[in-house]
Automatic annotation (TrEMBL):
GO molecular function: DNA-directed RNA polymerase activity; nucleic acid binding; zinc ion binding
Protein name from the UniProt record: Transcription factor S
GO biological process: one example: regulation of DNA-templated transcription
SMART domains per the UniProt record, alphabetical: RPOL9, ZnF_C2C2
Residues forming coiled coils: none
Tagged with keyword Cytoplasm: no
Record keywords: Metal-binding, Transcription, Transcription regulation, Zinc, Zinc-finger
Species of origin: Methanosphaera stadtmanae
Superkingdom field: Archaea
Transmembrane segments: none
Length: 105
């Protein structure tokens, strides 16, 4: 961050120059300095990317039997229930009709 030599306010980057909004002092940026400001802008843009759950919402499939429609391909995943000393519960979901149930081992 740089400060205006005339009035001491913060200089803000603006189209390749640093501009003082206090006294309209302007300072040209060198190419190296321009790159610094471009990189800073990219970083702040990346922080605005929203990660949705959709990208991790796929479960492995296994052979099994859906008692509702007879389909033999099931998605499955493990869930730790309530207390950490309880056994994990395995959930199954039929890939055909969406029927979901759980089984404790
Ligand atoms: Zn100034
Ligand atoms: Zn089914």
């Amino acid at each position: 961050m740089e400060f205006c030599p005339n009035c001491g306010k913060v200089l803000l980057p603006k189209k390749g120059i640093l501009h003082c909004y206090g006294c309209n002092y302007e300072k040209k940026l060198s190419d190296d300095e321009k790159q610094d400001y471009v990189i800073n802008k990219d970083v702040s843009d990346k922080q605005n990317i929203i990660v949705t759950d959709d990208s991790i919402n796929t479960h492995p499939t296994t052979r099994g039997l859906c008692y509702r429609c007879g389909n033999r391909e099931l998605e499955w995943w493990m869930v730790q229930m309530h207390r950490s000393d309880e056994a994990e519960t395995r959930f199954y979901r039929c890939t055909k009709c969406g029927n979901t149930w759980r089984r404790s081992n």
